[in-house]
Design goal:
- This protein has a domain at about 65-200: Rossmann fold (3-Layer(aba) Sandwich).
- The radius of gyration is 16 Å and the shape is globular.
- The protein has helices spanning about 5-15, 20-30, 60-70, 90-95, 110-120, 155-160, and strands at about 50-55, 55-60, 80-85, 100-105, 125-130, 145-150, 165-175, 180-185, 190-200.
- The model has no long low-confidence stretch (mean pLDDT about 95).
- The strands form two sheets. Strands 5-4-3-6-7-8-9 form a seven-stranded mixed beta sheet, with helices on one face.
- It is of the alpha/beta class.
- The longest helix has 14 residues, at about 5-15.
Amino acid sequence: MNPDSRKIRLLLQLRRGGVTDTRVLAAMERVPREIFVPEPFRDRAYDNLALPIGHHQTVSQPLVVAQMTQALEVGERMKVLEVGTGSGYQAAILSKLCRRLYSIERHRPLLAEAEKRFAQLKLTNITTRVGDGTLGWPEQVPFERIIVTAAAVDVPPVLVAQLTVGGVMVVPVGDDDDDQRLVRVLRTEDGAETEDLNPVRFVPLVPGVASD
């Protein structure tokens, strides 16, 4: 099966998985996932699978990326924070949908590779840095949207505080691989409202910067 056929098959799987937002589907179609996975796995790039990218990290399965992006409801004028750049795949999708994306990664080598991919794809609205994602990006607050690509033990109050009122965060929550759920958080005048979406499996959200 050629790459175009695989991509079409994947888009059909995303629709069956409940992804109906046409902007999200268009972004998923336009971003070449094969450049975000290591060479040995490129023939699986359009399978609905999480794939290893080194440093005990993965690029999430496309359905989860699409579901999280859809739940975030990103507008084209919005300023978005991503905690956990990883391969850069989720960032590349978001960059097609928002005005400016700020992305933090704790693994310096992963971020360096992601930055090369952003340059290759001419994605000029992404600002990156190596840092502790649990602290967010205080110098750039507030954000209208925040996405977290690692599992927090609970909804992180530090990140909620960096949202505008009416802003949305999508974050995996749970301290056990078998008991994680995707949560949508709405920042309100009085605090936050949360909505459980679906079960997921992510690496844990870890404080600090990695030593690699």
